Amino acid sequence: MSGEVNTRAIVYDESGRKELARVVLNGYNITAGGPLGRHGTMRSFKIEDGVLWDQWSLGTRLVIRAEDGQQAFGRIAAHPAAIGAVGLIEFLG
After folding, report:
1. Which of 4, 14, 21, 55 has the fewest CB atoms lying closer than 10 Å?
2. What is the pTM of this model?
3. Quick one: three-class SS letters along the chain?
């Protein structure tokens, strides 16, 4: 699949100081907004380490920082249903 990109990222609380989880964003290269996309963009993800259940259930605004240093606000739109399953992160700009 041409253009397929898996981007490692760290999810922080809204302040950007407390690390909550390490994830891998799955999908295709989103050239218009880089690896994190623009407001409203969704990427599937897998959790490598950490827990995001409370942030999903509360709809908490989070900071997602990609391995290249780019960061964006986002929220967990769909939490993975089981270990190794995928969820969705919606980027909020």
Report:
1. 4
2. 0.84
3. CCCECCEEEEEECCCCCCEEEEEEEECECCCCCHHHCCCCCEEEEEEEEECCHHHHHHCCCEEEEECCCCEEEEEEEECCCCCCCCEEEEECC
